[in-house]
Amino acid sequence: MSYYEVSGSAFARALRTVSYECENCGQGFSYQFELIQGNTQTENTTSTNKDKLKKIVFSLKEIAGPIALETVKNEIKSLDAARDFGHEECPNCGYLQSWMIKSWAKVDSSEVGKKVQLPSTILTGVFLVLAIVLPIQIPSISYLVSCLLSFVLWSIGVFIIIRYAMSFANKPNKDFGKVDKENIPTVTWSEPEISLFGE
After folding, report:
1. In whole angstroms, what is the distance from residue 96 CA to residue 175 CA?
2. Which residues touch 36 (CB under 8 Å, ≥6 apart)?
3. Domain coverage including residue 77
4. Do 106 and 15 belong together in one domain?
5. Beta bridge partners of residue 186, listed in sequence order
6. CA distance 125 to 197
7. Minimal CA–CA distance to 94: which of 33, 32, 29?
8. Which end of the chain is more exposed for a tag (fewer CB within 10 A), N or C?
9. In this predicted structure, what is the pLDDT of residue 91?
10. How many whole angstroms separate alpha carbon 151 and alpha carbon 137?
């Protein structure tokens, strides 16, 4: 007897609108972000009847929908609690609002990490080879000393790479003087809704 895996998927979405008054120029703007979360349910069946399979898929979608909806609701709570409202430069003057810095820093740190990853990997390979080859080329140096020396040099190299990458990182509002004003954005979410894939 053969079993076939049948799956049904659904997703839930909610639209966030962030309205704010720029702390630097005083102009009002808004931007939107669509939050989407999906869920897939599976079931094994021996049936090959198309009508029966359609019913199974639909029932799996009905199970997946509320799960996706709950995931979206939890994500909304998490984003609001963290005051993570996304970020954009003011369309009028280019200023990054004080309450946007946290969200901006998260993205910027990720970009710095990508710049560091490749050279750090190459550096690791080089010093691993050095740790192995050095005692062979210079017998008076033990493997322990070779490993310690390679680790110290590797640490210095990685530190230099990170500092170099950080020097190219964007610095928010570097072209602006001191702005004392700190506004609070107005954040609204649409009612989360379920959509079934294929319907």
Report:
1. 11
2. 11, 12, 13, 72
3. 4-96+179-196
4. no
5. 19
6. 46
7. 29
8. N
9. 93
10. 18
Residues 8 and 91 in one domain: yes
Cβ-proximal residues to 51 (8 Å cutoff; 6+ apart), any chain = none
Q: Which residues of 77-101 are buried (b: 16+ CB within 10 A; e: fewer)?
A: eebeeeeebbbeebeeeebbbbbbe
Co-location of 61 and 156 in the same domain: no
Measured CA to CA, the distance from residue 65 to residue 41 in angstroms comes to: 10
Same structural domain for residues 8 and 92? yes
pLDDT < 70 regions, the chain: 1, 106-120, 123, 127, 129-131, 134, 140, 143, 161-171, 197-199
Query: Does some domain include residue 147?
Result: yes
Question: Can you give the pLDDT at residue 124?
Answer: 72
* Judgement on whether residues 91 and 106 belong to the same structural domain of the protein: no
Question: Residue 170 corresponds to which tokens in the numbers above?
Answer: 């964007």
Q: Are residues 77 and 120 part of one domain?
A: no
Q: Is residue 174 domain-resident?
A: no
Count up the domains in the chain and report the number: 2
Alpha-carbon distance 181 to 97, whole Å? 10
Cβ-contact 58, 8 below 8 angstroms: yes
**Do 185 and 88 belong together in one domain?**
yes
Strand, coil or helix: 30: strand
Place of tokens 């009612």: 191
Are 82 and 115 in the same domain? no
Structure tokens given for 157:
């190299």
Residue 127, both tokens: 């010093």
Query: How confident is the model at residue 26, as a pLDDT?
Result: 93
